[in-house]
Amino acid sequence: MFASYRSPNSLSKKMMRVIFSIYLFVTCLITSMQFLTEYLKTQDSISDELKQLQETVQGPVSTSLWQYDQTQLDVLVDGLIKMPVIEGVDVFDKHGKSMISKRSYTQASLPLSIFETKSKLYWTLNGTRVFLGTLVLYSSSEVVLDRVLFGFFLIAITAMIKLSILFGLFIWAFDRYLARPLKELMQQVNEVQSSKNTRKRINLSHIENNELSQLQDHMNTMLFSMERDRERLLEDEKSKRDWLEEAVTKRTKDLQVLNEKLKTLATRDSLTGTLNRGSFFDTANHLLELSQRQKLPASFILIDLDYFKNINDTYGYLASINLA
Question: Are the CB atoms for 227 and 243 separated by under 8 Å?
Fold first, then answer.
């Protein structure tokens, strides 16, 4: 399941990658802010420790300066420089001239950042405060990082655990509620397209009342409309085909009737209805050839009606045609 989300080749996977990328960015930003907050908080704590140390050694250092006891001053500075939170000590006289300057690091291993606390040294003589010099204690980012390293490690581990759990939950939720329904929807759409059964519909399993269910309903409505339009088109096509067949049949009958009429007009005399001259000779030749092949006798009768013209003149052509 995790491997399928490496490349955004579908809508759900692309959405998953975008959301996870945004969440990863926000998580890294929040974790970085936690790191910075923890670092600044630890730095303030170390600054407070430096101030407390200054208040502790302020009296002995002032005494050593007032008595010009350089040996005692060196011992105090060496003791301070050995403390874990102190990276350097400077002691200046009242004119700002450096009397002692010691560091726990070398020039080759300078810390990333150094912060300091200053305190002025006084000696009280007959109720009057005499300014002796300045004590400066230094600490660095190395001290802060050493102290917060374990906290940073816990923050990073916690962020990774939360990120892994939420990533798994995101993938499960997307796969359960979006990727699987979309995949099933596409499979059923392909089945509907390739199926010969026009009444097949989309029926997603484990679907809730959401956009996917609405999409399923809309697609099924569209399929129903397509099926209804298809049936309507088939009915219209059948009606047109039946009408065309009926028209062709009727036209064929009309043509047959016309052909018969044309044949009659071509072979019969329009007045008497008997064979005309051309048809008479064709029929006579055919019958003579037939009698010769079958070796049967053939007869020809010629009738001459006398005074036929008088019938035409007396009773009209219709009577003479009926008589003929």
Answer: no
